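Dear colleagues,

For the upcoming journal club I promised to circulate an example of a predicted protein-ligand complex. I picked one with adenosine-5'-diphosphate because it came up in last month's discussion. The inputs are reproduced below in full, followed by the predicted structure.
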Amino acid sequence: MIEFIDVEKIYGKDVKALQKINLKIEQGEFVAIIGLSGAGKSTLIRCINRMHDITSGKLLIDDVEVGDLKGKEVRHLRRRIGMIFQSFNLVTRTTVIKNVLVSFVPEIPVWRKITGIFSKENKIKALESLDKVGILDKAYVRVDQLSGGQQQRVALARTLAQDPAIILADEPIASLDPVTSKIVMNDFKKINQELQISVIMNIHHVEVALEYANRIIGINDGKIVYDGKASEVTQVILDEIYGGKMEEADPKVEEKLVDV
Ligand code: ADP
């Protein structure tokens, strides 16, 4: 479980990116974080795996205060929390399987790193992860020969190979076309439902957030202005999250809204 208690994040002297955030996210939830650019979505996600330190309050994961963790403990935390980026973060000039095997690097002995030998177990695990996202047949293809959607699935497989309890996804479909976005979102949904991995995702496309997430957290100017079921989001709620600028955020959303 992830718990934010009165969390604040201030950049520099006075950029209040997060203000008094109180949240509980149970294991296995699929949460979409929505809001205008600059609202604090990315900061909120990145505090969970200590990419950013919070300024005040408490952030607990399974009752352990994340801010108290040191060196090795932070690395351990990050192994339990996978992170997916908009830009995939892959080494494109090498094969898919090598990109997935990279997830084992922190735990293999130095001599193996130098010789580049991965164990049979590592390789099986990497192939299983590729199978889970439907691209096992691409294992020995170079990443730069894959489409954007396939590359995002490689990134997802790399994260799955580390057996995470939580996956944080920062705008994972922002650079994909609508059809490919759907395929990637279906992968997230499958992983969430079948493996009970929590998914916490920042997403710009409101209609996709409403379709796939069970819970929506709306942020405006560093504050949570909505936290509830995706099925209960109304136009009034979206106006509050987007300060009346929702058309700019996503013009296609109306068809996904509940009637009130
Ligand atoms: P979002 O993900 O919703 O676009 P961010 O979390 O990136 O929002 O940003 C929230 C606020 O914090 C913005 O005002 C942004 O300019 C500021 N901010 C984000 N990262 C940094 C940083 N590393 N240093 C200073 N200010 C930052």
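Two points we might discuss: Residues 2-259 form a domain with the Rossmann fold fold (CATH 3.40.50.300). The chain has a mean pLDDT of 90.

See you all on Thursday,
B. R.
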